[in-house]
Amino acid sequence: MKRLPKYTPAEVRNDPYGFTYKEMSEVIGENEAKALYEELYKQLPRKKNLSMLVKNICKSSDTEKYVYELKDNKYIETVFIKRRDGGTVCVSTQVGCPVGCIFCESGRNGFVRNLTSSEIVQQIILLRRKVNRIVFMGMGEPLFNYDNLIKAIHILRDRYGLNFPTDGITISTVVFCPK
């Protein structure tokens, strides 16, 4: 008996950055998935595929802070650190943060919600920069959004898309321990 896909074609087409090539091809077929992946990862991002917008960019000599507005009018930040051969991007995984570390601003206004895997991936896509390191240490505690974080890593590593190397990805955590 053939297994039914767990997603619908409408879900894939409405939020394509949230799916691996394999997931896409199981739902919309290999030809359409190939064309869509080509559009998503080999061309400049199109507004119709995005669920967030660049609202502001603050630049200094070696860093750029991107402020993104999400569809629900919440904001997150992503930081790009320039290097000679590309750059490192610090990626957010949550809107706000439930931890409240004294050294961090992210938790000042509390936790709002987890980011989707698509929103995590789009932070890198919207930079339109050569990225050779990804560090999950922006807003939020990455391991508190474990499922979406791991899915985003699978999407970023997908050989049909960005094909990002595993050794270029770091997850930074505070290893929160309740009192």
TrEMBL record:
GO MF term set: 4 iron, 4 sulfur cluster binding; catalytic activity; metal ion binding
SUPFAM superfamilies noted in UniProt: Radical SAM enzymes (SSF102114)
Pfam family, any one: Radical_SAM
Record-level GO BP terms: rRNA base methylation; tRNA methylation
Radical SAM core domain mapped to chain residues: 83-179
Domain of life: Bacteria
UniProtKB keywords: 4Fe-4S, Iron, Iron-sulfur, Metal-binding, S-adenosyl-L-methionine
Keyword Ubl conjugation in record: no
CC cofactor: [4Fe-4S] cluster
Presence of keyword 4Fe-4S: yes
PANTHER family documented for this protein: 23S RRNA METHYLTRANSFERASE, RADICAL SAM CORE DOMAIN-CONTAINING PROTEIN
Name listed for the protein in its UniProt record: 4Fe-4S single cluster domain-containing protein
Species annotation: Treponema porcinum
